[in-house]
Amino acid sequence: MPRENFGPEHVFLAKEEILSYEEMTSVVASLLPLGLSKVRITGGEPLLRRDLHVFIALLRDLDSELDIALTTNGVLLERHAEILFKSGLNRITVSLDAVHTELFQTITDSKSSPEDVFKGIDVAQKIGLPVKVNCVVKKGVNESQIVPLTKACSERNIIVRFIEFMDVGTTNNWNLDSVMSGQEMREVLRDHFGPLEPRAAAHPSDVARLWRLVDGSTVGFIESVTKPFCGDCSRARLSAHGSIYTCLFSEQGFDLRGILRFGADEQEIATIIRDIWLHREDRYSELRTQLKETRHPVEMSFIGG
Ligand SMILES: C[S@@+](CC[C@H](N)C(=O)[O-])C[C@H]1O[C@@H](n2cnc3c(N)ncnc32)[C@H](O)[C@@H]1O
Question: Does residue 305 have its Cβ closer than 6 Å to ligand 1?
């Protein structure tokens, strides 16, 4: 969350306002019969929530086949990787927008360093937890990091996915000039490493398009601004306070917390979510340039990316 949004007057949600691990688990359980096969835990910063491994173990107990992933800034990963893995986590995505220490500290507005993040990545890999890296590229800010980050990841046998900077929320000063397209990022890589070759996607709902470098390593691009993929999107998002959002750019969610606490059983929750999902019409990324009205979409720090 940007520091200016987080002054001393910031009011945290009371503990009873956020969903318990048991409540989140029952939402997931209700969706398994409808075909839910993957859960991603994001945030905020998920490693800041106490005993996160307990939640992962609850999810794992539901279904041994469920794909459980986590997106984190990686700063606390070194400390938590092993217990998360032992509790049933399948894989980790680490956000890392710079390998240059000062630039990293400016972007993250923190005193942590890329080395802290790499320590966490290295521990995760050592214990057998697959890792991917996400890097949001903002023009004029961190395009200089594309080549060094690709090198650091390919040395570790990790796929780095470069993300086009999106206009999520209202506080990130987004404008089209600050977007570096996937095509422009590939040109930077081509100039340094030689020609790139596209690779086939494993699933239609995969958000990243994969390309192979001459040395055989793979890089990905999430091009949601220049090549929107709303039609293939199968993601519903559940906020910490229990609302379901059908799009990253939604202005409003649907309250599930009240329904859960009113005593709805898993079948009733499933019916409600199915209804919300079947009636969704949002495809913001495809409409972005045509929408003229002022919108107030939820912040990334709230909905989790
Ligand atoms: C909001 S973070 C939340 C999880 C965790 N705190 C982290 O840092 O990974 C989830 C993902 O959204 C990405 N992201 C944040 N702002 C973005 C933007 N404006 N455009 C594209 N991706 C963005 C981040 O880089 C990260 O990979």
Answer: yes
